[in-house]
Amino acid sequence: MCKKEGLKVKKSLKRFTLLLGVMMIAFVLSACSGESSNGRSSDGGTGSGVSVGIVLPTKDEPRWVQDEQRFKEALEGTKYTTEILFSQGSPAKEKENVETLISKGIKVLIITPQDGAAAAAAAEAAKKEGITVIAYDRLITDTDAVDYYVTFDSFAVGEAQAQYLIDNTKGTGVPLYLYAGAASDNNAFLFFQGAWSVLQPKIADGTFKVANSSEAVALQDTAELSRDQLSKIIGQVTTNWDPNEAKNKAQTHLTAAAADMKGDVAILAPNDGTARAIADVFASDSAITSYVVTGQDAEKASIQYIIDGKQSMTVFKDVRTLVKDAMGMAVSILDGKTPETTGSYNNGKIDVKAKQTDVIVVDKNNVKKEIIDSGYYQASDFTGLE
Ligand code: BGC
């Protein structure tokens, strides 16, 4: 062996040792990151990475912790490899979560966007890698990178809330307080649109008088609102899905309200978290003699409020069904089949094939049957249940 060749061998030996070192460090690191701090990994013992990635918006609302729990229950004992990550209200964190899951080799992404429009970038990044994107509960808007949508009938949620207000108030000129979800959530539009379709004729004929939105008053003779018109009203009465913001708004509205906007009132509250906050404010105003307030999600705290007569109703969306549908879709895709859908939703760019689930109105009359007897929650979670 000549000197030059010996040097070459030495050099490549050095490179090889270096490479081996790097590989060993990478191996140790990947072994350590098998389970993320806010997620769940289960590879069914195959050690083959993650096949379905699930991204949920925030742990701060019981609704999404409930979804996480139901996903975990549905996945127990199955062979599917999944990981659940939370975005904590941040579209940037959401994008990062999607990138993490892409790097783990997911084939299907199930995602509830924090912000429907901002999530388009995350969906597009996944799509580029050949991943099938399923929007879960909230639609991702203005992109063609979303393949499927699994959802409750959100228009029907709003319709049911509005009908409840009509059925549970008496007389005419009933003060009506309107509240909405976050404008970054497409569902907030669907809920409000559904509610408006039922309430508008009753506002126009004087059964209700809107107490807290000049935009709604200006549009009270318009049966079908455009997206822009909806935006105007939602812009005034949004809670941003934040109970604190809901509470502050309710306080401001009651401070500003004239005497004829008090007494027996009706309140359209978009979901349970905001309903409880708003109800507490109305309950503490001595000029409010009674209130009917809507909700949505059947959160445990609101079921207790309903039993206690502090919240009038909730729209029960059985998350077990949504989880089953989403996982069923993911499994069909992994098996190379076309998932079953029941209709479609336009997301501003394309019609997204959708699977839709019905909702159930729950108040004190049927709370035991729908929530306890159905096995959704345990009776022992509540007090005062008859
Ligand atoms: C969901 C509701 C939830 C709300 C706030 C909506 O998109 O459909 O169930 O209460 O977001 O998180």
Question: What does this 3D model show about the protein?
Answer:
- Helix 2 packs across helix 12, helix 3 packs parallel to helix 4 and helix 5 packs parallel to helix 6.
- By secondary structure, the chain is an alpha/beta fold.
- It folds into 2 domains: 134 residues, Response regulator (Rossmann fold, 3-Layer(aba) Sandwich), CATH 3.40.50; 185 residues, Rossmann fold.
- Strands 2-1-3-4-5-12-11 form a 7-stranded mixed beta sheet, with helices on both faces.
- The longest helix is centred in the N-terminal third of the chain and has 30 residues.
- Bound molecules: beta-D-glucopyranose.
- The site of beta-D-glucopyranose has 11 residues, from loops.
Q: List low-confidence stretches.
A: 1-47
What's the CATH class of the largest domain, please?
Answer: Alpha Beta
CATH level-4 homologous superfamily of the largest domain: Response regulator
Describe the biggest sheet? 7 strands, mixed
Average per-residue pLDDT, rounded, comes to: 90
Whole-number radius of gyration? 25 Å
Residue share in helices? 40-55%
| Overall geometry | globular
| Overall domain count | 2
Percentage beta strand: 15-25%
Second-tier CATH architecture of the largest domain:
3-Layer(aba) Sandwich
Short synopsis of the structure:
With 386 residues, the chain is an alpha/beta fold. Helices cover 45% and strands 16% of the residues. The chain has a 7-stranded mixed β-sheet, sandwiched between helices. A 4-stranded parallel β-sheet has the order 7-6-8-9, sandwiched between helices.
